[in-house]
Amino acid sequence: MNPFTPPLTLTRRRLMQGAAAIGALSPVHWSLRSALAAPTRTRVLSGTEFQLEIEPVPMNVTGRPRSATGINGQVPGPILRWREGDTVTLDVTNRLAVPSSIHWHGIRLPSPMDGVPGLSFNGIAPGQTFVYRFPVSQNGTYWYHSHSAYQEQTGTYGPIVIEPRGGYAKAFDRDYLVLMSDWSDEKPDTIVSNLKFQSDYYNYEQRTLGTFVDDFEKKGLDPTVANRLEWGEMRMSPTDILDVGGAAYTYLINGQPPRANWTALFRPGERVRLRFINGSSMSIFDVRIPDLPMTVVQADGNDVEPVTVDEFRISVAETYDVIVQPEAERAYTIFVQAEDRSGFARGTLAPRPGMTAPIPPMDPRPLRTMTDMGMGGMGPASMSGTAMDHGAMGHGSKPGMEAGKPAEKLERSVEVNNVAEMPTERLNSPGEGFPPGRRVLTYAELRAIRPGTDPRPPSRDIILHLTGNMERFIWGFDGKKFSEAGPIELKRGERVRFVLINDTMMEHPIHLHGLWSELENGHGEHRPYKHTINVKPGEKLSYLVTADAPGRWAYHCHLLYHMEMGMFREVRVG
Ligand SMILES: [Cu+2]
How far is the CA of 507 from the centre of ligand 1 (A)? Predict the structure, then answer.
C-alpha cells in the first residue's frame, strides 16, 4: 500500500453528513449567483470539507441514452468554491466498477495529493474513498478531472473557483463559469482504435443529409436557430486540424449542447465575469461574443494586465477569465467554435431567460501553412496564396474524399514523420483560422500584473521536441513514448528553462503538474504563470520553472489521446 494513502475513514455517518452539507450549501450561499445560469445542473459546493462521488450518470446529448462517469450525479461535476488560505479536505469515493482518481488541475499541492495514479498515489479502487487534504495557496479559476483511463472524456470533470484573499484585481457584478467540453456517444476506446486504424478517420466521417433529417425528426429544432444549428450539428466540414472533430463530438457548455442554450443572465450595464475553462479531451476552441468585446483579466488562474479582444483561442485545459459589459437590453451569443470548424458550442448572455441572439456562421477552417510545418518563419500574412492544406504533407491529400474514401497515405517508416527544420517563435500570432479585422488574443499579450516570485536566471535549458507519427497515431517527446523514456530530473529549488520545439503539425497543450510554467513572452519579470502552454505546429517557445515542490509530477500533452499514446513524461524533483 502506498504510504501516502490515508486510511479509509469514510463511515456511513460521515456520508450522511456530507449529503446534508451539500443540501445546506445551496447556490444561494454563493453570492456569485451562478445558479441563475444553469437551472438544470450546476451545483456549487463551498467551504473546506467536500464529499465527491465518481459514479455512472445517465447522459443523453444526442437522443441516444448513454452512461457518463459523472460526479455527484452530474456532468460536469459540481463547482468547487475554495478560499485562498484555507485547507480543504475532499473525500472522493469511487462508485465506478473500475479504478478512478481526481487530479486538481493547476493547483499547487503536495505531490501525494495530485491524483495521478502510478505517480502520486495508487488511484482509488472501486468502492473506496481517498481523502485529499491540502492548503490552498493560490486563487483563480481552475478545474479538476479524472486522471484514470479515458474518464476525462466520459464526464469526470468539474470547475474550481478559488476566491482571492486580498480581493479581486478587477471589479465585476456577476460571475459565471463557462466550462466547455466535448461529448461523444462513441466509447473512447472506439475513438482511439479508429484513430489508430486511420489517423484521419474523423475527417472522413461526414454526416449525410439523411442522418441530419433523421436527427431533426427525432429531436426537433427551434426553427429560429435551426439553420445555424445545422452548421453546428450536421458536421459537414472535412477537417484535419483536430484529430477528433464534430463527426464524433457534440460540444457542450456546462454540460449543455447547443440547442439547450445554456444562458447567463445580466442587467444592462453590469460587468459580467465569465470564467472559461476548456475541459474537453481533444478540442481546441475559438471563443467570441459577437458585438461584445471581452476584456481578458486572468489566464490559467493568474491575473494579467487587462487586454480587450474580440476573440481568443483556448487550448485544452487552459482557462481564461474575461469581463464583459453588455449595455443593451438584448441577448448575445457566446459562440465557441471548434478550431477545425466541425462544430460549435453555444450559450447566451441575456437580460431575461428564453431570449436568444443570432448564431453566426462558422468561420472558414484554418489552413496549415509552411510555418506550421516548421519550414520557415514566414507568417500566414506573407504566405497568403500559398497556404497549404494540412493534408498536403505527410497526412495524405484527399482526392478520394468526394467518393467518401480515404486517399492513399504517404508511407513513412519511422516513428517520427516530421521534423521542424526551421521552428519559429510566433507568440505574437493567435494561430490560423481567424478572419482579418478581429482582435484575437495572443500569448505575447499576456502580461502578469505582478512580477514573478523567483528573479534568478535559469541554470540550464531542457530542450524537448514534441514529436509524433500522425499516420500511426503515436505521440511522444523526443521521438520516445513514455514507456521508452526515463524521468526528467530536477534538483529541488533549481530554476530551469524548458524549451519546446513542436515538430508536428498538431497543436499540443503541454501541462506540467505541481510547478508553474512561466512563459517567456517578452514581458521580463512580468511573464505570465501558466499551468498549460499551447505549442502551435512548427513553433518553438520557452518557459521558466522553479522546482520548488518535491515529488513525482506528471508532464504531458493534455490532448487525452496524445497523452495516452505516449506524449507523457515524469518530472521528478528530488
Ligand atoms: Cu498533443
Answer: 6
